[in-house]
Write a structure and sequence with these properties.
- It is a single chain.
- This protein has 513 residues and is α+β, with helices and mostly antiparallel strands.
- Among the domains are: 110 residues, Phosphorylase Kinase, domain 1 (2-Layer Sandwich); 190 residues, no CATH class; 31 residues, no CATH class.
- Helix content is 60%, strand content 8%.
- It has 21 helices and eleven strands.
- The strands form three sheets. Strands 1, 2, 3, 4 and 6 form a five-stranded antiparallel sheet that branches. It has a four-stranded mixed sheet with strand order 5-10-9-7. The protein has a two-stranded antiparallel ribbon with strand order 8-11.
- The radius of gyration is 26 Å and the shape is globular.
Amino acid sequence: MSLIRFIYVSFIILKFRLDEFFDSRIITIIKYLLSPIRIFQSKKDNRSVRLRYALESLGPIFVKFGQMLSTRRDLIPLDIANELSKLQDQVPPFSFNEVKKIIEKEYSGNLESVFLKFNKEPVASASVAQVHFAELIDGTKVAVKVLRPKIANAVKKDIKLLGWLASIIEIVWIDGKRLKPKEVVKEFSKHTQSELNLLLEAAHCSHLGQNFSDKKLLLVPKVFWDFCNEQVMVMERMYGTPISDIKNLKRKGIDIPKLARDGVEIFFTQVFRDGFFHADMHPGNIQVANDGRYIAMDFGIMGSLTEKDKQYLARNFVCFFNRDYRGVAEVHIESGWVPAQTSIDDFENAIRSVCEPIFNKPLKEISFGKLLIRLFQTSRQFNMEVQPQLTMLQKTLLNVEGLGRDLDPNLDLWKTARPFLEKWLKEQTGPKNIIKNLKKDFPDFIDIIPKLPKLIESYLKNNHYVSIQTDLNDASYKLKKLKKFTELLSIIILFIIICWILFFIYYGNHLIS
């Protein structure tokens, strides 16, 4: 982590008064030590606006982090989530000379030997990559995605810095441990790293294309694997109208209410049939073909669900809309996401208290995404662990709902989704699926049976040492905690010193002049 970068981040924290977000004894001491500086700080904007300005000042990676935070409405206050959703991942494009240099290096040849035509101006530019239209030598029209130069190193440094800030927040903020900032940074790092490998994105695109190979509702661009690597991705050029351009869609004779229903069906098919879904479904990543089919774009962020996750979600949704709150509580405890000792009666009443007001509205006005947020917020009071794959789903669901209701304000999401969910649950508990699972697991059963005596003997022998090992692990854990606390205390002291130095440099010049 660069000391200069840390000093700059410290200056931004000081400039936008971000320490006011936290409330703890350590922060109170820091605020007291920095109190003279407060006289010179602007107090025009509220906290959420100041946070947005700070993230914009810190650059594209922090902007992307803010965008991800805006989807975590289960963790952060709504005013902050709403303000952070205004963050735009738009940065100036890098030069065509850089693009040409990257492509020629990756292909070990001239640009002209691969592409018949190559548009110099990008059609899209973001913090990680940009896209150009081109033609292959055989005349095939393609879209070429190219990673920004040296982006991997810049991302690595900023994520490391975010990790340090998350560690500090866990110590100095009362809600720090509950909100698990280190896990949020880890989740962000995972998604960002996947965007830095265009071979992985090409695989995502190909996977989604195979799942929708019938092309009835969704079109996915073909990947040209011979021209793909970690820095460059070449895919079929798609022709469509942005889904947000409703006026133009109507002019082309597209059935808008059907388009909204199809979007819901595509989403639930991805989630429950495939367990693999596009997790960045904002309007910029979706177009509509002239015949009314959806076109998917940008496959950097995808979500996946296990069979257990799918069962949990489907049962939850069905229980919710049947107002079976005890069923919701039971699903949470059975899944292991809420501790087994949780009082099912208390949990049921807590869920009822937040959900009943929602269900007093007509079904078409109920938001699935907001329902999930309320569920996660309530569950966290009962020590529910953060499930990253579900937070991605929640974000995607909010996007799908927003898109669907922009297209058709009368869209009844539950009416569209309920038959799909009930059919899927019936199939999962039916005899065909049970036989299928038995066939799948039978070889494992056969393999384990002869080993059972040795496995039991090994367990009995090892069990004798468990208590000793536990004590050693506990001591080691406490030493690590003490070391980490000492390191963080040093960083906090350094931060205070830097703040005072910056104060004298920045404001001293103004006072002298």
